[in-house]
Amino acid sequence: xxxxxxxxxxxxxxxxxxxxxxxxxxxxxxxxxxxxxxxxxxxxxxxxxxxxxxxxxxxxxxxxxxxxxxxxxxxxxxxxxxxxxxxxxxxxxxxxxxxxxxxxxxxxxxxxxxxxxxxxxxxxxxxxxxxxxxxxxxxxxxxxxxxxxxxxxxxxxxxxxxxxxxxxxxxxxxxxxxxxxxxxxxxxxxxxxxxxxxxxxxxxxxxxxxxxxxxxxxxxxxxxxxxxxxxxxxxxxxxxxxxxxxxxxxxxxxxxxxxxxxxxxxxxxxxxxxxxxxxxxxxxxxxxxxxxxxxxxxxxxxxxxxxxxxxxxxxxxxxxxxxxxxxxxxxxx
Length: 333
Description:
Helix 7 crosses helix 11 (306-317). This protein has helices at 25-28, 45-61, 78-84, 86-89, 104-112, 140-145, 190-210, 231-238, 262-266, 285-296, 306-317, and strands at 32-35, 40-43, 68-70, 75-77, 132-134, 150-151, 155-164, 178-188, 216-220, 242-247, 251-258, 270-271, 274-275, 277-284. The chain is α+β, with helices and mostly antiparallel strands. The chain folds into 2 domains: 25-95 and 136-317, BirA Bifunctional Protein, domain 2, CATH 3.30.930.10; 97-135, no CATH class.
């Protein structure tokens, strides 16, 4: 375990690096460059290799369910996002890809202006209509891609994507505007999704024990805009659907999420003639980098073999069957 002392805000007390406030020396020295203005991280060297090993391990864990791997683009159409009701629930976190109106006169006006002003801001002229949103959650693409399917058995899928969520403030590897998410999704009946979430929680528990990463499970809610005015937030308080695996002072590094039949209804997904239920297991890669280096230090020789641990979990999962929680929300240990 790292000898650095952890404060209550989850930041180690080792010296701050030249990368700027909030960037511990241990991270800058092993491959983190922090772009503070826009809350983004560049990875290189050992830290980049660790990120790749994390995703290899998470992809291996998806083999517990023989999940099919898919790759999807960075954008979601406005029509798709509207069906998800994302912009009404999380408008403060949405990030939009924008372009100039392509008329020649408008582009000339842009070129005749400052282009970028003294404050470092682009000075656009008229913008083209916005027709897409940058991916806020990797799993959203899966429901759109499989729209209209009639399932006779549960379907397990996995995908990785760069996700974008605008925040009031950012912290290196812990809260970023753009970050990497690996998800495993189950689409099926309520019972099948409940069993998936129970097993997903067991998988996370077993994996973190093997790599000596202490976690605690906490009930959580999604970051709704003006939450006390949003009935969806209030419903999540009454009927929890999100549980996070937290490291240290509450850093969520993974979560299990029950969607009920929300996506099944919105995307005409059915299981045995009824709107399908869905649930997901999500991993935030950058947060795992922070947790692993905080727990095990900055020397790669001291880092756990993540891929080997994931193989062990997959092998054990074939003979272990967690008890399905009564709520179907994934509560078994």
